[in-house]
Write a structure and sequence with these properties.
11 helices; methyltransferase activity; single chain; Methyltransferase family protein; Rossmann fold; transferase; 2 domains; globular; 8 strands; about 280 residues; methyltransferase; 8-stranded mixed beta sheet; alpha/beta
């Protein structure tokens, strides 16, 4: 029985550790729907199998997932159907380069729809969008600045962009704590935040660097914080205890909002989360 509970327990701990992103997005969705007076049109770049997209569609929003993997998009299509939101989820195969084919601000598109048997589409993206999510993507694209500029271009005026990236300083600490000091030094001092040529992640970010990228794309940053600031240091067994979950969430919240210490602690997040706005 204990073995059967372990995957669910790990999933629960992971959800707690990323709670801050979900909570911020849920508040943003409520505010933006009230502002617009309608559900949002959302683009999820690199949304894969739809963990976020299906949740947003379940709240009534129309979500387009742009992802290069046909297998992931097929899984997304099945997941959306099982959740009863297939009519609000569109799967489009492509990557950040496809953003140049998004619709213009008058709602027109420069491409045609060509659906495939697995539910994905090779259609041009039907922008612009009220919200664009770019979670775990800037680490792997060829040019993060160009990707952010393209994302800004498919946003409605006043539209929001949610970005999550891997944090540099958390990777420094993680390697130092296990004694891999050379790798820790490389992550800290390299231009791209990598531990060396064998590092599977092309780049990592810190809060000032993420701020500069968003500024460079002409986006106004409304929210910038670390995520999983202390979560990876807390044993999963502790997070399985219902009495300690709320304490953990309160600690993470305080670490990223404390008036004196948030600037330091937030930068230690395993991930960094920003919400920015197209002026």
């Amino acid at each position: 029985m204990a073995e059967e509970r372990r995957p669910a327990a790990r999933a629960g701990a992971a959800a707690l550790r990323t709670h801050a992103v979900g909570a911020t997005l849920d508040r943003l969705l409520v505010d933006e729907q009230a502002r617009l007076g309608r559900p949002l049109r959302v683009l999820d770049l690199g949304g894969g199998t739809g963990g976020l997209a299906v949740h947003l569609a379940g709240l009534g929003h129309a979500v387009t997932v742009l992802d290069p993997s046909p297998d992931a998009l097929a899984a997304l299509t099945r997941r959306a159907a099982e959740a009863g939101v297939a009519d609000r989820v569109t799967a489009v195969q492509g990557d950040a380069d496809s953003l140049g084919h998004a619709g213009t601000s008058d709602g027109t598109s420069d491409g045609t729809s060509d659906g495939t048997s697995d539910g994905t589409s090779d259609a041009a993206l039907d922008g612009p969008y009220d919200l664009v999510c770019c979670h775990g993507v800037l680490e792997v694209v060829d040019d993060p600045a160009a990707t952010l500029a393209a994302l800004a271009g498919v946003l409605e005026p006043g539209g929001r962009l949610s970005v999550t990236v891997a944090g540099r300083l958390a990777a420094v600490l993680a390697r130092a704590l296990v004694g891999d000091l050379d790798a820790a030094l490389a992550v800290l001092t390299s231009d791209d935040g990598r531990a060396g040529s064998a590092d599977p992640l092309p780049r990592r970010f810190d809060l000032p660097g993420l701020q500069r990228l968003l500024d460079g794309a002409g986006l106004a940053v409304d929210h910038l914080q670390g995520v999983r600031v202390l979560g990876d240091l807390v044993p999963a067994a502790i997070l399985d205890d219902p009495r300690r979950r709320e304490a953990y969430l309160a600690l993470e919240e305080a670490a990223t909002t404390h008036p004196e210490h948030a600037a330091v602690l937030g930068g230690l997040g395993a991930h960094l989360h920003a919400v920015a706005r197209r002026a």
